[in-house]
Specification:
Number of strands: 14
Number of helices: 8
Strand content: 15-25%
Radius of gyration: 18 Å
Shape: globular
Structural class: alpha/beta
Distance between the termini: 15 Å
Amino acid sequence: MIAYSWEHDGLRKRPTLWEALKLSTERHKAIALTGGGGKTSVMFRLADELADMGKTVIVTTTTHIFHPPGRNVVETDCSEGAAKRLESNGSVLVVGVPAADGKLKSLPLTEAARLKELADVLLYEADGAKRLPIKVPKDGEPVILECTDVVIGCMGLDCIGGELEEFCFRTEQAAELLGLQKGPDGHYSHRITCGDAAKILTSESGTRKLVGERDYRVVMNKADNEEFIAKAVRIAGDMERLHPVPCAVSCFLRGDHL
């Protein structure tokens, strides 16, 4: 992964996603990931970068995540069990309760909050999006722990230009946020624009929901061609006018393309 930060007049390549997001191990010890596409990839990328920095990390969820292959996983509903495993098994530990379909679900929220005290940084997914690139939450979403220091909202750039009903999770909530009406056929005939994405990412009814006074960051994923990079720049500029927020762009495109 190549990481860029938005710097008012364009994108700047950064050594790590952690740096691109302007995060601090002193200030940001509990990090929630919300929104659409790429949350899991971003979460484990940050976990591995922190491990390279010599930090201990616990990865978990307040909803559901897939059981990650090749990772050090402890299946428990108790923070004490996680503490013992982290002490003896490396710097990144995934913690969760076994669930159906090969998934892990949240510990009781009081136990999940205690995980913050066991490692240098706690990373957790607080939202589900059914693998769709953008999301507008419904009532009860996301599930943010009180101890959270920063929320990172994620979006996949492949939603831009796609039909709302196909690419956005929680279509009804998105339509309400964007002020859309159904057509005579009972469907929303609307393609997602860069302006729509900026509004969703910065709205307190969208990806910024329940952030409150906490720090907020945005990651736009899948900037893997020139067209998507240009869209990321446009969205970042729109967000700067709506609600300025540190913003990173992740990319797997190699070479001097900017």
